Amino acid sequence: MTYLILGVALWSVAHLFKRIAPAARASMGMAGKGLVAVLVLVSIGLMVMGYQSASGAYFWGRSAAMVGINNLLMLLAVYLMVISVVRVKLNTKIRNPQLTAVKTWAVAHLLVNGDVPSFVLFGGLIAWAVISVILIGKQDGKAPIVVQSSLAKEAVALVATVVIYGAIAALHMHLGYPVFGK
What we know:
Elements: H1 2-20, H2 22-53, E1 58-60, H3 64-83, H4 97-112, E2 114-115, H5 116-140, H6 151-174
Antiparallel strand pairs: 1-2
């Protein structure tokens, strides 16, 4: 569990560095970007190792209903991540689609993983995303979001979402993690 906690903490600190200490981060220039990238990669490694080896109390598991809700939320999370790149009309309503995607992804996983390691991993990432949204709102303000969308962009976002979701589901199944069913 130690690696898992360290991974979530390192992920959070690396991502929040720019918001917590903007002057220090800015003074590092491009080297700061490299440092953050390395820290994020290390944090992912720690989270993967820590989650795979962690154990803890078990409160609930998968049910058919929760799997269905999980899959719908995952589809939404992928769509939110896609629209952070392919800007569509919805971007005028959702200020931080990537962070909203992370929160959606984490909630989806908590619905089907009711054990302490999952609470640490997914709950920790929800906490990081919420803190990030708050800090971004305080530092960047709430200027109106303007998006030049088109029917073609909307279609690209939908097709990309289905393809990426399919790839993620296939990878999960290949690694032995159930995607559909109980």
